[in-house]
Design a protein that fits this description.
Helices cover about 30% and strands about 30% of the residues. It has about 190 residues and is an alpha+beta fold. The chain folds into two domains: about 40 residues; about 100 residues, Immunoglobulin-like. The strands form two sheets. It has a five-stranded mixed beta sheet, with no helix packed on it. The longest helix has about 40 residues. It is elongated and about 75 Å long.
């Protein structure tokens, strides 16, 4: 009976080892399945402006959607015309900014970063997940920056002195002359 208690201890220890190994393998499989699911269903899309749209030069509000949510720890950033670094967007998803939910997002491009220039502009959204995973997706739109058409403004000097209003030829605006002209066409 020398080996009896030792044998029993070894069996229990081995039983736990097998359970730990099985659970570890199962965890790795679930993690891999989760990453595969993220990779399969992951997306990012710019919803405004749309591809090929003419937009005014200057500041622009960019908005979009993604498969990011408050659980998967993925984020969205934007770049315009390749001007680095990528700019972090504002999360506007249903769960809001805490925890980060980039299922809906916006970015306001201002001169502090860059703005839309006249001609072709490329806007790219980048969807990225956990740095350890090194998983990214991209979506780009090309838009055309159009300068605003300037309407000429007729300048009529305004004299705020009511004593010296410009004179008007009264013969032009007498009502009875216009009335007589209209009556003659009947």
């Amino acid at each position: 009976m020398c080996g009896g208690p030792e044998m029993e201890f070894d069996m229990k220890f081995q039983g736990y080892s097998i359970q730990i190994i099985v659970l570890s393998v199962l965890g790795i499989i679930l993690l891999a399945a989760g990453l595969a699911t993220t990779a399969t269903y992951a997306f990012v899309k710019i919803t405004s402006p749309v591809k090929g749209q003419n937009v005014p030069v200057g500041n622009i509000l960019i908005s979009g959607v993604s498969s990011s949510n408050s659980i998967n720890q993925c984020t969205v950033s934007v770049i315009i015309d390749g001007i680095r670094p990528y700019q972090q967007v504002t999360s506007t998803g249903i769960n809001g900014p805490r925890p980060m939910d980039y299922s809906k997002w916006t970015f306001n491009a201002t001169p502090e970063y860059t703005t839309i220039k006249e001609g072709m502009n490329k806007i790219t959204a980048k969807y990225s997940c956990l740095p350890e995973v090194n998983f990214t997706k991209f979506y780009s739109v090309n838009v055309t920056g159009v300068a605003a058409k300037v309407q000429p403004i007729l300048s009529i000097p305004i004299n705020h002195d009511t004593q010296s209003l410009p004179s008007i030829d009264q013969s032009i605006v007498r009502e009875f002359k216009h009335t007589e002209i209209l009556k003659s066409y009947r």
